[in-house]
Design a protein that fits this description.
This protein has 135 residues and is mainly α. Helix 2 packs parallel to helix 5 and helix 3 packs antiparallel against helix 5.
Length: 135
């Protein structure tokens, strides 16, 4: 089984009609990530802390998968989705976290490029003023 078909197999293997608790947990987790990304958008220090939190969340995914494999009845009513390969946790937990990390990194890159442009413009204006004074 190739990687794409394995991912599709995991997604199709979830019985969403009976897994209301799991669906609610995932929805609330996704909502938390999106809200935190939005709330920290203009606060660089807070966003750095949020970024670190997301990195720790990715690092903890394997441990979380192991714990959920042992305690799967807390989140699922019928099926044990947390296998040793970690496909379920990777698809439904790690990918959304990585997406939020990517959004934060892209925002930082945009902020850095804007600051670089402003610094360069200021430098060019100053050089132009100094050149005009000399003439």
């Amino acid at each position: 089984m190739d990687d794409v078909s394995a991912v599709l197999h995991v997604i199709e293997g979830v019985d969403w009609s009976s897994e209301h608790r799991l669906l609610l947990i995932l929805f609330l987790f996704y909502l938390f990530c999106v809200v935190c990304t939005i709330l920290t958008w203009q606060r660089m220090n807070l966003q750095a802390a949020y970024f670190c939190f997301l990195c720790v969340a990715i690092y903890a995914a394997e441990h979380l998968n192991r714990w959920l494999a042992a305690n799967w009845k807390l989140v699922s009513t019928k099926h044990q989705y947390f296998d040793s390969h970690g496909m379920f946790i990777s698809i439904f937990y790690s990918i959304p976290v990585l997406f939020n990390l990517l959004v934060v990194v892209l925002k930082w890159m945009r902020t850095a490029s804007t600051a670089l442009i402003q610094v360069k413009q200021h430098q060019l204006r100053r050089q132009h003023r100094e050149k005009c004074k000399k003439e």
